[in-house]
Amino acid sequence: MADMSVIISGFGGQGALFAGILLCHAAVEEGKHTTWFPAYGAEMRGGAVNCSVNISDCEVPSPIIDSADVVIALNEESQVKFEKKVKKGGILIVNSSLSQAAFTRDDINYLKIPFNELAQQLSQPAFINVMAIGVLLEKTGILKSDSVIKAMREMSKNVSAKKAALLPNNIESFEFGTRIIKKQLVTA
Amino acid sequence: MAKELVKGNIAIARAAINAGCQCYFGYPITPQSEIGEYMGAHLPQMGRVFVTAESELASINMVIGAGTTGAKAMTSSSSCGIALMQEALSAMCIAEVPGVIVSVMRGGPGLGNIAPSQGDYFQALKGGGNGDYKLIVLSPSTVQEAIDLTYRAFYLALKYRNPVMLLAEGMLGQMMEPAEFGEYPYKDPDVTQWALGCSHNREARNLVSLYMPEGALEAKINKIFEKYELITKNETTYEEYMLDDAKLVLTAFGTVGRIAKAAVNKAREVGMKVGLFRPVTLFPFPDKELHEVAKNTDLILDLELNKGQMLSDVRSAVFGACPVEFYGRSGGGLLSPDDIFAKIQELYEKIDNKKAAGVV
Fold first, then answer.
1. How far apart are the C-alpha atoms of B320 and B291, rounded to whole Å?
2. Which of A15, A44, A136, B125 is spaced 20 to 30 A from B82 at the CA atom?
3. How close does chain B come to A176, measured CA to CA in Å?
4. What fold does the segment set B240-356 form as a domain?
5. ipTM
C-alpha cells in the first residue's frame, strides 16, 4: 500500500498525538510524504484527543481525512466517535481493555486487542500507543519496523533525560506490538 | 539538507531566525503561542532581542520602534490580537516603517474560538486601520511555503519599507510535515539611507505619520501608492493547478488551497475537468491572471473558511468573465476534500445542464 491515512484517538495522556508524530517521523526516515494534524483545543489530561496522519509516496494535498484506512481507538469514546470514519474495507484497531462498545459495521475489519492487559507483561512503564503503532505496521506493512525504531532514537535526542531514559521501554513496547497478530493475541 | 518533520508555528519561528530577525515582540495567544515560545528560547541566546510585551498594542509599537532603525523586527498573534494592532499598522504604512507580522487566524468575531478559520482576510487586506494603506499579505498553504514566505516577508518588508503580514490559519500553525529550511535566499537592501539612529555625521531624520501642511499628506499617499503599483508589478505570486482544460476552477487561499487540490485530484480521477487557482500573495492580488483564467472557464467556485471575504476580490478580478459561486464554512468549521468534491459534483452538473440547454 503506497498511501495510508490513519486517525489515532484516545484520552489525553495515552499518547495518541505522540504515536502520530512517531509515525510521521518514521515516514520521513523512508523519504515519504506525510502530514500530522492534531485536533487541538483546550484538551488536557483525561480529555479526548486525536490526530490525523497521512503517509504517501506523493505530495499530500489535504491534512484532513474524510475516511481513514486505519483508525486506532485507544479508548471507548474514540471507538464510538471514529468507527464511522473508517473507510470501507479499512481497519479499526480497538483497545478492548478500555472499550466494551459493540462493533456496528460489517464492512470493515476490527482488531480487538487488550493493550492495557498485554502491557502488564512488559517492562514498566510500557506504552500502549507505540504498541498500537507496532500492530499497525504488522497488519499493513506501510513502513519498516527499523524506520520506527530509528525515528524513536532520533526523537529521544531532543527530549529531557528523564524521557530519553524511556527509549528502551518504548522500543520494547513497539517490538512487542509488531508481534501481537502473529502471537494470536487479538481477541475475537 | 534533508527534509525534517516540523510543525508550522515552529517552522515560521525558525525561518524568522534564519532570516536574521533581530527582535521579536509578542504576547501569547492560541493557536500561535509556539512562535513566541520558540523565539524566547532561542533569540536571547543568540544575543538578539526577545520581549514578552504587556499587550498586542505594545508588541506592534515595539516593532515600529525597532523597524525605524532598520532592524528586522517581527511580532506574531492571532485574530483578536491582530485586531488590536490595526492603528499601528496604518501608521507603519504611511511612515514607511518595515516589519513582519505573523497572523495565525482563529475563529472570530470577538474572542471566537481557537479552531482554524480564514475570517481575517478582510482584516489583513481591507484594513481595520485608518486611511489609505495596504499591507503586503502572503498566504502559505504548506509548512514548506510557510518557511519560504517567512523569508520573503522579511525581504519584502525592507525592500519596500512596508509592513508585511504572513497570514496563516491555525491548521497550518498546528500541523506537521516534512520541510527544509535551506538558507535565507535574499540579499537585504541597504537601510542606511533612511534608518533612524545616531545622526552625528548626517542631517537629522524622522519617520512620521502626521502630515499637516496643505497637500503634504496627499503627496505622500500618492508616493506610497506608486510603490504599491510597483509591488503589484513585481511581486504578484499565485499557483495554477490543472487549469488548461478546466471547465470549473476553484479559487482558495492558504490551507484551503491544498485541501481544494485534493478535491481537484478526486474530480480528475472521475474525468471532471476541474482546476485550481491559488493566490499566494493576497496583496498584491493576482487580478489580471485570475481574469485570464475566468475567460477560459465556465464557472469559478471560491472556497474559504469564512462567509466569503476573498470572494469580493475574486469577483472584482473575474469582472463578469464567468459566473462565480461561493462555498465556505465559518466559526471553526472545516472544509474537507469530500465536502468540496460534493459541491464540485453539484456545480459541474449545472454547467453540463446549462450547456445542453444552450444557456452558456
1. 9
2. A44
3. 26
4. Rossmann fold (3.40.50)
5. 0.93
Section A53-69 average pLDDT: 96
Of B5, B174, B262, the CB nearest to A37: B174
Q: What is the count of residue pairs from A and B with beta carbons less than 8 Å apart?
A: 63
pLDDT score recorded for residue B200: 85
Cβ B180 vs Cβ B5: under 8 Å = no
The CA distance from B296 to B243, in Å, is: 9
Nearest to B152 by CA among B21, B19, B35: B19
Cβ distance B64 to B91 under 8 Å?
Answer: yes
Distance from CA of A178 to the nearest CA of B (A): 24
Give the closest-approach CA distance of B271 to chain A in angstroms: 19
Q: Are B303 and B282 in contact (CB under 8 A)?
A: no
Enumerate the domain spans of chain B: 4-235, 240-356
Interface of A with B in 31-50 (CB under 8 A): 33-38, 40-42
Residue in A24, A42, A67 nearest the CB of B5: A24
Task: Tell if the CB–CB gap between B337 and A62 is shorter than 8 Å.
Answer: yes
Evaluate whether the domain defined by B4-235 bears CATH number 3.40.50.970.
yes
Residue type, B334: L
Residues of A in contact with B332 (CB under 8 A): none
Q: Name the average pLDDT for chain A.
A: 94
pLDDT tens, residue by residue, B157-197: 999 999 999 999 999 999 999 999 999 999 999 999 999 99
How far is it, in rounded angstroms, from Cα A97 to Cα A116? 6
Q: Name the CATH architecture for the domain at A4-177.
A: 3-Layer(aba) Sandwich (3.40)
- Please tell me the predicted confidence (pLDDT) of residue A79: 97
Q: What is the pLDDT of residue B128?
A: 87
Residue type, B3: K
Q: Using CA atoms, how far apart are residues B251 and B262, in angstroms rounded to an integer?
A: 13
Q: Whole-angstrom Cα distance, residue B80 to residue A28?
A: 36
Residue spans of chain B under pLDDT 50: none
Q: Do domains B4-235 and B240-356 have the same CATH topology?
A: yes
| Edge-to-edge strand list for the sheet holding A86-95 | A109-113, A86-95, A68-73, A4-11, A48-56, A33-38, B176-179, B4-7
Distance CA B131, CA B133 (A): 6
Distance, in angstroms, between B356 CA and closest chain A CA? 33
Identify the residue among B3, B5, B78 best suited for mutation to test binding to A, counting A beta carbons within 10 A and taking the highest.
B5
pLDDT tens-place string over residues B146-164: 999 999 999 999 999 999 9
Please report the pLDDT score of residue A187 as a whole number.
Answer: 81
